[in-house]
Amino acid sequence: MVTTVQQRQVRASDDLSLSYRTLGHGPAIMLLHGFCQWSQMWITNGVAQCLSEHFTVILPDRRGHGYSGRPQKPEDFGMRMVDDVFRILDAEGQDTAHLAGFSQGSEVAWRAALVCPDRIRSLFLISSGWPGPELDKALEGYADMLDWLPQAISDKEDWLTPNPDLQTFQAIVASMPKVIDIPEVAMAHLSVPAFGLVGSEDPERGTIEQLTGLLPNFSLEILPETDHAESSEHPNLPRMIDDFLSSIEARFPFASHHS
């Protein structure tokens, strides 16, 4: 069966052009790619095709990535990245959706669920969670990426977004505290069903593990001998996301969540 992919655009609240793709039919699932990547990662790893058999899959190019606009100031990112999630859902007439994210996309996903829990049906968080008291360590990780990104761009590494822009990436990093610096008492209110997946060798493993016991409806799986990036390429990832979403649909059946 050939899956038809629709390419679409919408204007963000600040009039930035947001590019995204859709495929499949059913309850909505939005997949948020990682820092410096783009929506193609979800097609390369087979997740989008697998989920499209049961779900309407929405694949944004997050601002600063893919074929979306390239603003270059920190104030153009931060919570605007979260607002973009709902802007695209509105454009698709979707009142609610499941969210899955990898790395920075995971951070944007859980923050969106905190902002509008009534619109997010579940979360699937891959490789990054909540930094908690180790915010400085999380920001150091981003700073380390900025150190080696120029070489990755020069080498035209295939995981990178098209047209990578270092100034844009620097602005995103500078804006991240606005997204992830959330106190524990606020994070504990995140009550949507959530699943965390992280590799045993991932330096960000602790950011996912500490959600166990903090969030009231959270499940965790650790992939053995797997690092940060490898979790997003794991051969079982499409099935794992599909199984989790199907379990949510069985417990809370999709009614009329489409405007």
Write the layout of secondary structure elements.
Elements: E1 6-11, E2 17-23, E3 28-32, H1 41-44, H2 47-51, E4 56-60, H3 79-91, E5 97-102, H4 104-115, E6 120-126, H5 135-154, H6 166-175, H7 177-180, H8 184-187, E7 194-199, H9 205-209, E8 218-223, H10 228-231, H11 237-251
Parallel strand pairs: 3-4, 3-5, 5-6, 6-7, 7-8
Antiparallel strand pairs: 1-2, 2-4
Helix pairs in contact: 3-4, 5-6
What is the alpha-carbon Rg in Å?
17 Å
The sequence of SSEs as H and E is EEEHHEHEHEHHHHEHEHH
What would you call the structural class?
A: alpha/beta
Q: Find the CATH topology.
A: Rossmann fold
Helix content: 25-40%
- Overall mean pLDDT: 95
What would CATH call the architecture?
A: 3-Layer(aba) Sandwich
Helical run tally = 11
For the record, the CATH class is Alpha Beta
Identify the strand order in the major beta sheet: 1-2-4-3-5-6-7-8
Rough outline: globular
> Describe the biggest sheet?
8 strands, mixed
Oligomeric state of the chains in view: single chain
> How many structural domains are formed by the residues?
1
Low-confidence stretches: none
Count of individual beta strands: 8
CATH superfamily: Alpha/Beta hydrolase fold, catalytic domain
